[in-house]
């Protein structure tokens, strides 16, 4: 699911590689007939990107699950949800260059 989301971000020129995109998954397990059964999975997708990418990332988050093979495979038997935590990435200031000598 993270791969589908990351690929959709990359297709929109939003870098998702390295430490830019991470996911935390939480599953809820219930006992049914003395057997533990996974009932719900919640994903918290954390994206570090420039502020100007926020709106596009939110649009991708709203639709990525419909195109995710794993999400679609599990959704009939396990309740699936996700949220996006957007962390604005501080842009590094360009390095100051010494002034060229005047001739």
How would you summarize this macromolecular structure in one to three sentences?
The chain has helices spanning 2-11, 54-63, 69-74, and strands at 21-32, 35-49, 79-88. The chain is an alpha+beta fold.
Task: Lay out the secondary structure.
Layout: H1 2-11, E1 21-32, E2 35-49, H2 54-63, H3 69-74, E3 79-88
Parallel strand pairs: 2-3
Antiparallel strand pairs: 1-2
What does the model show?
- There is one protein chain.
- The protein has helices at 2-11, 54-63, 69-74; strands spanning 21-32, 35-49, 79-88.
- The chain is elongated.
- The mean pLDDT is 90.
- A three-stranded mixed beta sheet has the order 1-2-3.
- Helix content is 25%, strand content 36%.
- The chain has one domain (2-88): GMP Synthetase, Chain A, domain 3.
- With 103 residues, it is an alpha+beta fold.
- The chain has three helices and three strands.
Q: What's the SSE pattern?
A: HEEHHE
CATH fold node name: GMP Synthetase, Chain A, domain 3
Structure classification:
alpha+beta
For the record, what CATH class applies?
Answer: Alpha Beta
Principal-axes geometry comes out as elongated
Sheet of most strands = 3 strands, mixed
Tell me the total number of β-strands: 3
Spatial separation of the terminal alpha carbons: 60 Å
List keywords for this structure.
103 residues; alpha+beta; GMP Synthetase, Chain A, domain 3; 3 strands; 36% strand
């Amino acid at each position: 699911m993270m791969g589908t989301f990351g690929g959709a971000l990359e297709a929109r020129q939003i870098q998702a590689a390295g430490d830019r995109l991470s996911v935390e998954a939480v599953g809820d397990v219930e006992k049914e007939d003395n057997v533990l059964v996974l009932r719900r999975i919640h994903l918290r997708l954390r994206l570090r990107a420039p502020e100007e990418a926020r709106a596009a990332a939110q649009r991708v988050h709203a639709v990525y699950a419909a195109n995710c093979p794993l999400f679609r495979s599990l959704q009939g038997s396990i309740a699936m949800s996700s949220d996006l935590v957007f962390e604005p990435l501080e842009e590094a200031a360009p390095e100051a260059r010494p002034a060229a000598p005047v001739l």
